[in-house]
Amino acid sequence: MPTPQHRLADAVVTVLDRDGHPLAHTDVVVAQQRHEFLFGNIGFDLVGLANEDEPARAEVSALADLWLDVFNAATLPFYWGTFEPVRGAPATDRLLRAARWFADRGVAVKGHPLAWHTVGAPWLLDLTTDEIADVQDARIRREVADFAGVIDTWDVINEVVIMPVFDKEPNGLTRLAWDRGRIPTIRLAFDAARQTNPSATLLLNDFDMSTAYECLIEGVLEAGIRVDALGLQSHMHQGYWGEEKTLAILDRFARFGLPLHLTETTLLSGELMPPHIEDLNDHQVASWPSTPEGEARQADEVERHYRTLVGHPAVQAATYWGITDDGAWLGAPGGLVRADGTPKPAYDALRALVKDEWWLAPTTVRTSAAGCLPVRGFRGTYSVDGVPFELAGDREVVVRLGG
Protein backbone atom coordinates (compact mmCIF):
# COMPACT_ATOMS: atom_id res chain seq x y z
CA MET A 1 0.00 0.00 0.00
CA PRO A 2 1.50 3.39 -0.95
CA THR A 3 2.54 5.93 1.68
CA PRO A 4 -0.34 8.37 2.29
CA GLN A 5 0.99 11.57 0.72
CA HIS A 6 -1.28 13.83 2.77
CA ARG A 7 0.61 12.77 5.92
CA LEU A 8 3.98 13.83 4.50
CA ALA A 9 5.59 17.24 4.60
CA ASP A 10 8.73 18.82 3.16
CA ALA A 11 10.89 21.54 4.60
CA VAL A 12 14.18 23.22 3.84
CA VAL A 13 15.95 23.54 7.16
CA THR A 14 18.58 26.24 7.56
CA VAL A 15 20.98 25.35 10.35
CA LEU A 16 22.63 28.25 12.18
CA ASP A 17 25.47 28.18 14.67
CA ARG A 18 25.21 29.80 18.10
CA ASP A 19 26.17 33.18 16.60
CA GLY A 20 23.44 33.00 13.98
CA HIS A 21 25.66 32.17 11.01
CA PRO A 22 24.74 29.40 8.54
CA LEU A 23 26.48 26.16 9.43
CA ALA A 24 27.96 25.24 6.04
CA HIS A 25 29.22 21.82 4.91
CA THR A 26 28.67 20.28 8.34
CA ASP A 27 27.38 16.85 9.29
CA VAL A 28 24.31 17.03 11.54
CA VAL A 29 21.89 14.39 12.79
CA VAL A 30 18.23 14.72 11.78
CA ALA A 31 15.74 12.61 13.71
CA GLN A 32 12.01 12.33 14.25
CA GLN A 33 10.78 12.80 17.79
CA ARG A 34 7.00 12.62 17.57
CA HIS A 35 4.17 12.03 15.11
CA GLU A 36 1.56 14.72 14.51
CA PHE A 37 -0.98 11.91 14.04
CA LEU A 38 -2.20 10.72 17.42
CA PHE A 39 -1.41 7.05 17.89
CA GLY A 40 -3.21 6.43 21.16
CA ASN A 41 -3.90 3.79 23.73
CA ILE A 42 -5.64 3.78 27.07
CA GLY A 43 -3.37 4.59 29.98
CA PHE A 44 -5.49 2.81 32.58
CA ASP A 45 -2.87 0.15 33.31
CA LEU A 46 -0.21 2.75 34.12
CA VAL A 47 -2.15 4.90 36.59
CA GLY A 48 -0.79 2.82 39.45
CA LEU A 49 2.77 3.18 38.20
CA ALA A 50 2.39 6.95 38.01
CA ASN A 51 1.15 6.91 41.60
CA GLU A 52 3.88 4.48 42.74
CA ASP A 53 1.39 1.84 43.81
CA GLU A 54 2.36 -1.70 44.71
CA PRO A 55 2.58 -4.54 43.79
CA ALA A 56 4.26 -5.64 40.54
CA ARG A 57 6.12 -2.40 39.85
CA ALA A 58 8.74 -4.19 37.71
CA GLU A 59 6.13 -5.81 35.47
CA VAL A 60 4.22 -2.58 35.05
CA SER A 61 7.43 -0.68 34.31
CA ALA A 62 8.16 -3.12 31.50
CA LEU A 63 4.62 -2.63 30.20
CA ALA A 64 5.16 1.13 30.32
CA ASP A 65 8.27 0.78 28.17
CA LEU A 66 6.27 -1.10 25.54
CA TRP A 67 3.49 1.49 25.73
CA LEU A 68 5.80 4.49 25.35
CA ASP A 69 7.73 2.92 22.48
CA VAL A 70 4.70 3.10 20.19
CA PHE A 71 2.05 5.50 21.47
CA ASN A 72 1.98 9.29 21.78
CA ALA A 73 -1.55 9.83 23.11
CA ALA A 74 -3.17 8.42 26.26
CA THR A 75 -6.80 8.18 27.32
CA LEU A 76 -7.37 8.27 31.08
CA PRO A 77 -10.53 7.06 32.89
CA PHE A 78 -12.96 9.65 34.29
CA TYR A 79 -15.96 7.34 34.71
CA TRP A 80 -17.99 9.19 37.31
CA GLY A 81 -18.87 6.08 39.31
CA THR A 82 -15.21 5.21 39.92
CA PHE A 83 -13.84 8.77 39.88
CA GLU A 84 -16.28 10.01 42.53
CA PRO A 85 -18.13 7.05 44.10
CA VAL A 86 -18.66 9.15 47.21
CA ARG A 87 -20.03 12.60 46.51
CA GLY A 88 -17.47 15.31 47.13
CA ALA A 89 -14.47 12.94 47.17
CA PRO A 90 -13.19 12.78 43.57
CA ALA A 91 -9.94 11.00 42.65
CA THR A 92 -8.50 14.24 41.28
CA ASP A 93 -5.01 13.91 42.74
CA ARG A 94 -4.56 10.34 41.54
CA LEU A 95 -5.61 11.06 37.96
CA LEU A 96 -3.67 14.33 37.89
CA ARG A 97 -0.47 12.50 38.84
CA ALA A 98 -1.15 9.99 36.05
CA ALA A 99 -1.86 12.73 33.51
CA ARG A 100 1.35 14.56 34.44
CA TRP A 101 3.32 11.31 34.22
CA PHE A 102 2.25 10.93 30.60
CA ALA A 103 2.63 14.61 29.76
CA ASP A 104 6.17 14.64 31.17
CA ARG A 105 7.00 11.92 28.63
CA GLY A 106 5.67 13.90 25.69
CA VAL A 107 2.32 12.13 25.53
CA ALA A 108 -0.90 14.01 24.75
CA VAL A 109 -3.60 13.14 27.30
CA LYS A 110 -7.37 12.89 26.87
CA GLY A 111 -10.02 12.42 29.55
CA HIS A 112 -12.86 9.93 28.98
CA PRO A 113 -15.73 10.65 29.56
CA LEU A 114 -17.21 13.69 31.30
CA ALA A 115 -20.79 12.52 30.89
CA TRP A 116 -22.07 8.97 30.37
CA HIS A 117 -24.96 6.84 31.53
CA THR A 118 -22.79 3.80 32.34
CA VAL A 119 -20.45 3.47 35.35
CA GLY A 120 -22.51 6.30 36.80
CA ALA A 121 -22.12 7.78 40.24
CA PRO A 122 -24.57 5.80 42.42
CA TRP A 123 -25.53 8.82 44.48
CA LEU A 124 -27.11 10.46 41.41
CA LEU A 125 -30.08 8.11 41.83
CA ASP A 126 -31.15 10.01 44.93
CA LEU A 127 -31.37 13.34 43.07
CA THR A 128 -34.14 14.97 41.07
CA THR A 129 -33.61 15.47 37.33
CA ASP A 130 -32.91 19.17 37.82
CA GLU A 131 -30.37 18.35 40.52
CA ILE A 132 -28.69 15.82 38.22
CA ALA A 133 -28.35 18.50 35.56
CA ASP A 134 -26.80 20.89 38.07
CA VAL A 135 -24.28 18.42 39.45
CA GLN A 136 -23.38 17.16 35.96
CA ASP A 137 -22.69 20.74 34.92
CA ALA A 138 -20.60 21.32 38.06
CA ARG A 139 -18.74 18.04 37.61
CA ILE A 140 -17.67 18.94 34.07
CA ARG A 141 -16.55 22.43 35.08
CA ARG A 142 -14.55 21.05 38.00
CA GLU A 143 -12.68 18.41 36.00
CA VAL A 144 -11.99 20.61 32.97
CA ALA A 145 -10.65 23.36 35.27
CA ASP A 146 -8.62 21.07 37.56
CA PHE A 147 -6.88 19.34 34.64
CA ALA A 148 -6.47 22.33 32.30
CA GLY A 149 -2.99 22.52 30.84
CA VAL A 150 -2.44 18.79 31.36
CA ILE A 151 -5.63 17.41 29.84
CA ASP A 152 -7.04 19.71 27.20
CA THR A 153 -8.86 17.08 25.14
CA TRP A 154 -12.06 15.43 26.40
CA ASP A 155 -14.66 12.92 25.31
CA VAL A 156 -17.34 15.28 26.59
CA ILE A 157 -20.35 13.02 26.38
CA ASN A 158 -20.46 9.36 25.45
CA GLU A 159 -22.98 7.24 23.55
CA VAL A 160 -25.90 9.68 23.50
CA VAL A 161 -27.73 7.80 20.73
CA ILE A 162 -28.75 5.12 23.22
CA MET A 163 -28.64 7.28 26.35
CA PRO A 164 -32.36 8.15 26.75
CA VAL A 165 -33.49 4.55 26.26
CA PHE A 166 -30.65 2.71 28.01
CA ASP A 167 -32.23 0.05 30.25
CA LYS A 168 -29.36 -2.14 31.47
CA GLU A 169 -29.09 -0.37 34.82
CA PRO A 170 -30.71 2.62 36.53
CA ASN A 171 -28.69 5.81 36.23
CA GLY A 172 -29.08 9.55 36.43
CA LEU A 173 -27.95 10.47 32.92
CA THR A 174 -30.56 8.32 31.16
CA ARG A 175 -33.23 10.05 33.21
CA LEU A 176 -31.79 13.46 32.29
CA ALA A 177 -31.57 12.64 28.56
CA TRP A 178 -35.09 11.16 28.53
CA ASP A 179 -36.56 14.18 30.29
CA ARG A 180 -34.71 16.94 28.42
CA GLY A 181 -33.76 15.26 25.16
CA ARG A 182 -30.49 14.30 23.58
CA ILE A 183 -29.46 17.66 22.13
CA PRO A 184 -30.17 19.74 25.27
CA THR A 185 -28.20 17.18 27.29
CA ILE A 186 -25.30 17.46 24.85
CA ARG A 187 -25.54 21.26 24.98
CA LEU A 188 -25.32 21.22 28.78
CA ALA A 189 -22.16 19.14 28.66
CA PHE A 190 -20.44 21.03 25.86
CA ASP A 191 -21.33 24.46 27.25
CA ALA A 192 -19.87 23.57 30.64
CA ALA A 193 -16.64 22.28 29.12
CA ARG A 194 -16.29 25.07 26.53
CA GLN A 195 -16.94 27.87 28.99
CA THR A 196 -14.40 26.43 31.41
CA ASN A 197 -11.62 25.85 28.86
CA PRO A 198 -12.38 27.66 25.58
CA SER A 199 -9.24 26.28 23.92
CA ALA A 200 -9.94 22.63 24.74
CA THR A 201 -10.56 20.00 22.06
CA LEU A 202 -14.03 18.60 22.75
CA LEU A 203 -15.38 15.37 21.25
CA LEU A 204 -18.78 13.83 20.80
CA ASN A 205 -18.24 10.06 21.02
CA ASP A 206 -20.39 7.06 20.15
CA PHE A 207 -20.30 3.35 19.30
CA ASP A 208 -23.39 3.59 17.07
CA MET A 209 -22.13 3.87 13.50
CA SER A 210 -25.63 3.87 12.04
CA THR A 211 -27.52 6.77 10.51
CA ALA A 212 -28.89 7.46 14.00
CA TYR A 213 -25.52 8.91 14.99
CA GLU A 214 -25.37 10.91 11.77
CA CYS A 215 -28.81 12.36 12.48
CA LEU A 216 -27.75 13.25 16.02
CA ILE A 217 -24.62 15.01 14.74
CA GLU A 218 -26.71 16.94 12.22
CA GLY A 219 -29.04 18.08 15.00
CA VAL A 220 -26.17 19.05 17.27
CA LEU A 221 -24.45 21.14 14.60
CA GLU A 222 -27.73 22.73 13.48
CA ALA A 223 -28.33 23.70 17.12
CA GLY A 224 -25.08 25.67 17.05
CA ILE A 225 -23.17 23.41 19.43
CA ARG A 226 -19.48 23.55 18.59
CA VAL A 227 -17.90 20.10 18.33
CA ASP A 228 -14.16 19.93 17.63
CA ALA A 229 -13.92 16.28 16.58
CA LEU A 230 -16.16 13.26 16.15
CA GLY A 231 -15.37 10.13 18.14
CA LEU A 232 -16.03 6.80 16.40
CA GLN A 233 -15.76 3.58 18.36
CA SER A 234 -14.60 0.42 16.62
CA HIS A 235 -14.68 -2.50 19.04
CA MET A 236 -14.40 -5.37 16.56
CA HIS A 237 -15.04 -8.26 18.94
CA GLN A 238 -17.16 -9.94 16.29
CA GLY A 239 -14.58 -9.61 13.55
CA TYR A 240 -12.57 -7.09 11.59
CA TRP A 241 -14.71 -4.65 9.64
CA GLY A 242 -12.46 -4.84 6.60
CA GLU A 243 -11.21 -1.97 4.46
CA GLU A 244 -14.41 -1.45 2.46
CA LYS A 245 -16.68 -1.09 5.50
CA THR A 246 -14.15 1.02 7.39
CA LEU A 247 -13.70 3.44 4.51
CA ALA A 248 -17.47 3.69 4.02
CA ILE A 249 -17.90 4.63 7.69
CA LEU A 250 -15.08 7.16 7.56
CA ASP A 251 -16.51 8.76 4.42
CA ARG A 252 -19.99 9.00 5.93
CA PHE A 253 -18.77 10.86 9.01
CA ALA A 254 -16.15 12.89 7.19
CA ARG A 255 -18.94 14.75 5.40
CA PHE A 256 -19.44 16.89 8.50
CA GLY A 257 -16.05 18.49 7.92
CA LEU A 258 -14.75 17.63 11.40
CA PRO A 259 -11.63 15.64 12.30
CA LEU A 260 -12.37 11.99 13.02
CA HIS A 261 -10.94 10.26 16.08
CA LEU A 262 -11.16 6.48 16.19
CA THR A 263 -11.49 6.61 19.96
CA GLU A 264 -11.86 2.94 20.90
CA THR A 265 -10.47 0.20 18.69
CA THR A 266 -10.08 -3.49 19.53
CA LEU A 267 -9.23 -6.51 17.41
CA LEU A 268 -9.14 -9.95 19.00
CA SER A 269 -6.36 -12.52 19.03
CA GLY A 270 -8.66 -15.33 20.10
CA GLU A 271 -12.10 -16.69 19.37
CA LEU A 272 -14.48 -14.08 17.97
CA MET A 273 -17.68 -13.14 19.75
CA PRO A 274 -20.77 -14.78 18.16
CA PRO A 275 -22.42 -12.54 15.56
CA HIS A 276 -25.89 -12.72 17.14
CA ILE A 277 -24.76 -10.78 20.24
CA GLU A 278 -26.17 -7.25 20.05
CA ASP A 279 -24.64 -5.77 23.21
CA LEU A 280 -20.99 -6.79 23.56
CA ASN A 281 -21.36 -6.69 27.34
CA ASP A 282 -23.78 -9.62 27.17
CA HIS A 283 -21.06 -12.06 26.10
CA GLN A 284 -19.72 -13.57 29.31
CA VAL A 285 -17.35 -16.53 29.20
CA ALA A 286 -15.22 -18.17 31.88
CA SER A 287 -12.07 -18.14 29.76
CA TRP A 288 -11.18 -16.24 26.61
CA PRO A 289 -7.60 -17.09 25.66
CA SER A 290 -5.35 -15.68 22.99
CA THR A 291 -4.35 -18.32 20.44
CA PRO A 292 -1.48 -18.59 17.93
CA GLU A 293 -3.92 -18.57 15.04
CA GLY A 294 -5.79 -15.63 16.52
CA GLU A 295 -2.59 -13.70 17.09
CA ALA A 296 -1.57 -14.09 13.45
CA ARG A 297 -5.01 -12.88 12.37
CA GLN A 298 -4.91 -9.95 14.78
CA ALA A 299 -1.50 -8.82 13.52
CA ASP A 300 -2.71 -8.81 9.93
CA GLU A 301 -5.89 -6.95 10.84
CA VAL A 302 -4.15 -4.36 13.02
CA GLU A 303 -1.79 -3.50 10.17
CA ARG A 304 -4.61 -3.29 7.62
CA HIS A 305 -6.79 -1.22 9.95
CA TYR A 306 -4.09 1.33 10.75
CA ARG A 307 -3.08 1.64 7.12
CA THR A 308 -6.72 2.38 6.30
CA LEU A 309 -7.05 4.99 9.06
CA VAL A 310 -3.78 6.76 8.33
CA GLY A 311 -4.62 6.69 4.65
CA HIS A 312 -7.87 8.63 5.17
CA PRO A 313 -7.36 12.41 5.30
CA ALA A 314 -10.17 13.04 7.81
CA VAL A 315 -8.69 10.80 10.50
CA GLN A 316 -6.65 12.69 13.08
CA ALA A 317 -6.29 10.10 15.84
CA ALA A 318 -6.61 6.36 16.47
CA THR A 319 -6.75 4.99 20.00
CA TYR A 320 -6.34 1.28 20.60
CA TRP A 321 -8.39 0.13 23.60
CA GLY A 322 -5.86 -1.74 25.69
CA ILE A 323 -2.16 -2.46 25.75
CA THR A 324 -2.48 -5.80 27.56
CA ASP A 325 -4.83 -8.78 27.92
CA ASP A 326 -4.37 -8.58 31.70
CA GLY A 327 -7.62 -7.03 32.89
CA ALA A 328 -8.81 -6.28 29.35
CA TRP A 329 -12.34 -5.05 28.71
CA LEU A 330 -14.85 -7.94 28.87
CA GLY A 331 -11.91 -10.30 29.43
CA ALA A 332 -11.40 -10.44 25.68
CA PRO A 333 -7.96 -11.13 24.18
CA GLY A 334 -7.88 -7.73 22.54
CA GLY A 335 -4.60 -6.42 23.91
CA LEU A 336 -1.38 -6.01 21.97
CA VAL A 337 0.59 -7.61 24.81
CA ARG A 338 -0.16 -10.99 26.37
CA ALA A 339 -1.14 -11.29 30.02
CA ASP A 340 2.40 -12.53 30.75
CA GLY A 341 3.85 -9.25 29.46
CA THR A 342 5.23 -10.47 26.13
CA PRO A 343 4.30 -8.57 22.95
CA LYS A 344 1.97 -10.21 20.46
CA PRO A 345 2.67 -10.10 16.72
CA ALA A 346 0.09 -7.30 16.52
CA TYR A 347 2.24 -5.11 18.76
CA ASP A 348 5.25 -5.75 16.53
CA ALA A 349 3.19 -5.03 13.41
CA LEU A 350 1.92 -1.71 14.74
CA ARG A 351 5.34 -0.69 16.01
CA ALA A 352 6.83 -1.46 12.61
CA LEU A 353 4.41 1.01 11.06
CA VAL A 354 4.62 3.78 13.66
CA LYS A 355 8.35 3.67 14.42
CA ASP A 356 9.82 2.24 11.22
CA GLU A 357 7.86 2.66 8.00
CA TRP A 358 6.28 5.98 9.09
CA TRP A 359 9.31 7.22 11.05
CA LEU A 360 12.59 8.97 10.27
CA ALA A 361 15.35 7.29 12.25
CA PRO A 362 18.41 9.38 13.22
CA THR A 363 20.16 10.19 9.94
CA THR A 364 23.42 12.02 9.38
CA VAL A 365 23.05 14.73 6.73
CA ARG A 366 25.59 17.28 5.46
CA THR A 367 24.41 20.87 5.15
CA SER A 368 24.90 22.85 1.95
CA ALA A 369 27.13 25.90 1.51
CA ALA A 370 24.18 27.98 2.74
CA GLY A 371 23.72 25.76 5.80
CA CYS A 372 20.58 24.16 4.38
CA LEU A 373 19.27 20.62 4.21
CA PRO A 374 15.99 19.13 2.96
CA VAL A 375 13.77 17.11 5.30
CA ARG A 376 10.82 14.99 4.17
CA GLY A 377 8.76 12.81 6.44
CA PHE A 378 5.53 12.24 8.30
CA ARG A 379 4.25 15.43 9.86
CA GLY A 380 5.40 15.87 13.42
CA THR A 381 8.28 17.02 15.60
CA TYR A 382 11.85 16.52 14.38
CA SER A 383 15.26 17.65 15.57
CA VAL A 384 18.64 18.68 14.24
CA ASP A 385 21.39 17.69 16.65
CA GLY A 386 18.74 17.54 19.36
CA VAL A 387 17.20 20.97 18.65
CA PRO A 388 13.49 20.44 17.83
CA PHE A 389 11.45 21.85 14.98
CA GLU A 390 8.00 21.15 13.53
CA LEU A 391 7.60 19.52 10.14
CA ALA A 392 4.09 20.65 9.38
CA GLY A 393 3.99 21.68 5.74
CA ASP A 394 6.00 22.74 2.73
CA ARG A 395 7.98 25.59 4.25
CA GLU A 396 11.34 26.87 5.39
CA VAL A 397 12.57 26.23 8.91
CA VAL A 398 15.46 27.80 10.80
CA VAL A 399 17.21 25.83 13.57
CA ARG A 400 19.81 27.46 15.76
CA LEU A 401 22.31 25.14 17.46
CA GLY A 402 23.91 25.92 20.78
CA GLY A 403 21.85 29.05 21.27
UniProtKB/TrEMBL annotation:
Domain GH10: 57-353
Main EC class the enzyme belongs to: hydrolase
Keywords: Carbohydrate metabolism, Glycosidase, Hydrolase, Polysaccharide degradation, Signal, Xylan degradation
InterPro entries linked to this entry: GH, GH10, GH10_dom
EC number(s) on file: 3.2.1.8
Family: Belongs to the glycosyl hydrolase 10 (cellulase F) family.
Protein name: Beta-xylanase
Source lineage: Bacteria, Bacillati, Actinomycetota, Actinomycetes, Micrococcales
